[in-house]
Design brief:
alpha+beta, Thrombin, subunit H, six-stranded antiparallel β-barrel, six-stranded antiparallel beta barrel, 12 strands, 38% helix, elongated, coiled coil
Length: 289
């Protein structure tokens, strides 16, 4: 027996190896099928969740992107608002500078036209809202030769007269004050009268005429007359807007719109002295608002 096995040992070993390999392959094949089945089953279970997570992840990404864009737009909007505010501030500043330049140019022209007059330039430094159409305070006073009763003008016409002074300032009664009382005349008809403020809160003037039938019309220019205690003759006061009879119809009155913009008085000139019998050329003032 032993001799038989020894003689046939190689074929027997080969047969055993083949048998073992066959059994191993069979077992591996079965295990592979089960593993594949389990993998498919797990894939079927996980796939919906995986798809859902992928969808949610995509939406979250979009949402995060949208929020980022909103923050960017908000920042850009804020920057545009700041730039617009800066632009408007610069525009306002340029407008104010242009207005101030126009006023100063008008004052220079006025001073040149009144070369024989002695004038002092002043700036309005104070104005009480309660007496807005009655008085202003300027930054020149008795130290500059100014005293009560002197006329105050600007290129557009009559502003008022000085009523009190300190060494470095003066109070000016505006033409709009009901107590102003300025001798005036209509340029076209030469009709004379007195111009004064209508009320403490009005920016119009009343022209009380002396003649019964003065032939005054809307649009006529009104200037200071030679019958004046404080003002040189020929200074522009304003323009006739409306003419009406007094309560008893004995005389006529006119509403005059002043040539000076009393809501915006910044720079003025005080008339220290002037040659008698002279007026400013041209008679209607100068400059523009």
């Amino acid at each position: 027996m032993g001799g038989f096995i020894f003689r046939w040992r190689r074929p027997i070993i080969i047969l055993l190896v083949v048998a073992v390999v066959s059994v191993s392959l069979s077992v591996t094949s079965r295990l592979h099928g089960k593993v594949e089945s389990m993998s498919n089953a797990i894939g079927s279970l996980v796939s919906p969740a995986s798809s859902t997570l992928a969808y949610l992840g995509n939406k979250v990404g979009v949402g995060v992107g949208t929020i980022g864009e909103l923050f960017t737009l908000q920042r850009e909007n804020q920057q545009l608002k700041q730039q617009l505010l800066l632009y408007n501030s610069m525009k306002l500043e340029l407008s104010e500078l242009a207005e101030e330049n126009s006023q100063l140019r008008g004052l220079l022209q006025l001073k040149g036209a009144a070369s024989h007059w002695k004038l002092v330039t002043a700036t309005v430094i104070s104005r009480n809202p309660d007496t807005w159409f009655q008085t202003v305070v300027i930054n020149r006073g008795s130290d500059s030769g100014i005293h009560a009763g002197m006329a105050v003008i600007e290129p557009q016409g009559v502003v008022g007269r000085v009523i009190s002074t300190s060494p470095v300032s003066a109070t000016v009664m505006l033409l709009l004050d009901p107590d102003s009382g300025v001798g005036a005349e209509d340029v076209r008809s030469q009709a004379a009268g007195v111009v004064s403020g209508r009320a403490a809160i009005s920016d119009e003037l009343t022209f009380q005429l002396f003649a019964h039938h003065p032939n005054i019309q809307p649009g006529d220019a009104v200037v200071t007359s030679s019958y004046n205690q404080y003002y040189p003759a020929g200074l522009l006061i304003g323009e006739v807007a409306k003419v009406s009879k007094t309560a008893y119809g004995l005389t006529e009155t006119a509403v005059v719109v002043p040539s000076v913009n009393f809501n915006q008085i910044d720079n003025v000139m005080v008339v220290l002295s002037h040659p008698n019998g002279t007026s400013l050329p041209p008679i209607f003032g100068g400059g523009s608002r």
